[in-house]
Amino acid sequence: MAERERAEGPATQVPRNTNLRKLHAGYLFPEINRRREAHLLKSPQAKLINLGPGDTTEPIPPVICAAMELKAKALSTSLGYTGYGFEPGLLSLRSAIAHKLYSSLDIKPTEIFVSDGAKCDIARLQLLFGPKVSVAVQDPCFPVYVDTSVIVGQTGGFLDHLHQYNNVAYMRCTPENSFFPDLSLIPRTDIIFFCSPSNPTGVAASKTQLERLVGFAKANGSIIVYDSAYAMYISDGSPKSIYEIPGAREVAVEISSFSKCAGFAGVRLGWTIVPEDLRYSDGSPVIDDCRRIMATCFGGASNIAQAGGIACLSMEGLIAMHEVMAFYKENAQILLKTFISLGFKAYGGADAPYVWVKFEGRTSWDAFSEVLENVNVVTAPGSGFGPAGEGFLRVSAFAHREDIIEVSNRLKAFYTSSVNQGTQAFGI
Amino acid sequence: MAERERAEGPATQVPRNTNLRKLHAGYLFPEINRRREAHLLKSPQAKLINLGPGDTTEPIPPVICAAMELKAKALSTSLGYTGYGFEPGLLSLRSAIAHKLYSSLDIKPTEIFVSDGAKCDIARLQLLFGPKVSVAVQDPCFPVYVDTSVIVGQTGGFLDHLHQYNNVAYMRCTPENSFFPDLSLIPRTDIIFFCSPSNPTGVAASKTQLERLVGFAKANGSIIVYDSAYAMYISDGSPKSIYEIPGAREVAVEISSFSKCAGFAGVRLGWTIVPEDLRYSDGSPVIDDCRRIMATCFGGASNIAQAGGIACLSMEGLIAMHEVMAFYKENAQILLKTFISLGFKAYGGADAPYVWVKFEGRTSWDAFSEVLENVNVVTAPGSGFGPAGEGFLRVSAFAHREDIIEVSNRLKAFYTSSVNQGTQAFGI
């Protein structure tokens, strides 16, 4: 008895954060990994192909890596060494982002905060907004918006029967509304998270839709947190930035990233734009608090990653990035066509590296297991992205071409046998 | 009128975070920079030497940079490319930290969370603890502990007459108590921030002192957040880790960094240790919540920086790092001896790259201006680190040798003229 107590040690008297206690189950991707490991234990010979986490697979273009090598080497020399950088990033990188990615949109370099990635910026924005704001999210959406809202205390508890948190407005985005919410049904909130092209559905919002969103935010005095992490994949003319919509500077911040366009998922580089025009209800500029949060809670993005970011935005870098994105989009088209040819209803895949597939009559986790166990492919269950994602799988196009072709062949082999067909025979 | 409204744009109806409104004035270092710029406007010819921000100046040893170059190059190849890493870091790096820096201390690699730096980890720990905990800090201390406490809502407002926040326990560390607080005067708090060697005083706590601190935390059921960012500078036998104290695993997390030992201030790499034995009052392990925070609010340290971290901990890397630290400590000794020779009371500088100097009869900002305007040296005013820092300056030893010698000569030239002497003639 004494020994057991000693082994566990006495607890402190520090109360556990009640906000963390509210967090429901595991974060989506650890749970996917857990089930993948369990499958591999059962079927150790399985040649799994992982289209789950949306993790980039293709090398970073050499012109970009060369710039990072050069910076790493320079750090060993007296002339090239640099210590702390200004937390919001090198002015040269902020200028390159402003001029190459927002050239016609009147974004000042000083309105751009360079960071170590969009996920990290979402957490810092939540620290900025604090516990008292109310939030709305697309449903389905990237789980980090809601989870960070829970962590800072903006939400109520998890409602098991609804699969959602109390005090969060879930804006349903389904095939029935072309994946754009019916705003007449959405209550006013302080913050509206909106991602286009959407992760997970892969669908980009049109200019008309975003005009409605900005109008809705203006009418409600809300702030849109616009996530454009996949915007460079857009090729159908849809806006790549919320600032293409007149008036957005007064109601929106935008977060974005080099992860998916340049393969920087592991290098870590992103940015957030906070326009000077954006103000709280007391009239004070949001950008002032953002500067303070960045200076206090962040140490700047790695100087080597920033050198890579500058190279990404050179003429050669931009061309090379677009070649890699075109490759992933070809992957997405192969997946999309495969699912459609098999009778599935499938979406996205044109302006984004994700395909969103409906599995009629099955829950997302059932569909996940069906594909995992029969096709040996890891996907991401749609319900992990919100209640409106139930019945869908997100299939990532981030993979080597031979794996995409293999997935396509396996899907065809399994789902063309009559009992397994996507939309038809299931439920018999 | 209409035009002016249009120029400013309408404000949103989102309330400003009341916690951010509480934050007093600017963060210390932006204010230092503002005053430096003002001095340069008045005296554009001044050859300023900056011993203010504690920013590393010497190149990173080539053996470490070579590893980062290699990783940057590998990212352009199919074989060497890696996307998302596990957020808590490469297991090889976590193992190297456990085995090279905590070899006799029973720290498991899985208890180590690799990060983009100690400042960022402090902010994430505050998200972890949430708004309901009470905090104590050394006074003076690194301003980020208190500022992040304010941001997450743990404190009351700033009390102008006391130069401190309400609901924060300030543990006075002065020459009178050998820079270790009289714990009998300190109220119980949930969290105790403690840094050794202390930034700003440069003084390392002894084993006996840390045993008292751990005993105090145990008696109160508190959690110590132990900042060992400068621990590798210790050479007098004082503990380099809180885990050298028996029982610390049950009451302490430790944050640390490659910034000051390897010159990674701009590369960004640090770590936090959360022992499995550390538990909240409800018995649940703190490490579980830490895993969740890292997965949700963080994307991992840059893979290139992590490759550098592994090289830091190779035999060659460790030797090279210690050579650079020895160089900075020689700088510190030059500064310390200069101030003492001029009649100042000066502390630190033996186990840390900072010297802490008392300016009798002057406020810290007055002393800051005196040194800036007469000696053209930027320092950091002690009062910026807490009310008990009033009357002191922190002088950083992070500089090229010729600059340190020049500072020493300028100080001697100015302060040996009788009216200016440190402790003697002032006030006449």
Give a quick set of tags describing it:
homodimer, 428 residues, alpha/beta, Aspartate Aminotransferase, domain 1, Aspartate Aminotransferase, domain 2, seven-stranded mixed sheet, four-stranded antiparallel sheet, 14 helices, 14% strand, globular, disordered N terminus, disordered C terminus
Walk me through what this model shows.
The structure is a homodimer. Chain A has about 425 residues and is of the alpha/beta class. Chain A folds into two domains: about 130 residues, Alpha-Beta Complex (Aspartate Aminotransferase, domain 1), CATH 3.90.1150; about 260 residues, Aspartate Aminotransferase, domain 2, CATH 3.40.640. Chain A contains 14 helices and 15 strands. In chain A, the strands form four sheets. In chain A, strands 2-10-9-8-7-3-6 form a seven-stranded mixed beta sheet, sandwiched between helices. A four-stranded antiparallel beta sheet of chain A has the order 11-12-15-14. A two-stranded parallel sheet of chain A has the order 1-13. In chain A, a hairpin with a 4-residue loop joins strand 4 and strand 5. In chain A, helix 5 packs parallel to helix 11 and helix 6 crosses helix 10. At the A-B interface, helix 2, helix 4, helix 6, helix 7 and helix 8 of A face helix 2, helix 4, helix 6, helix 7 and helix 8 of B. Chains A, B: It comes from Adiantum capillus-veneris (Maidenhair fern). Chains A, B: Keywords: Aminotransferase, Pyridoxal phosphate, Transferase.
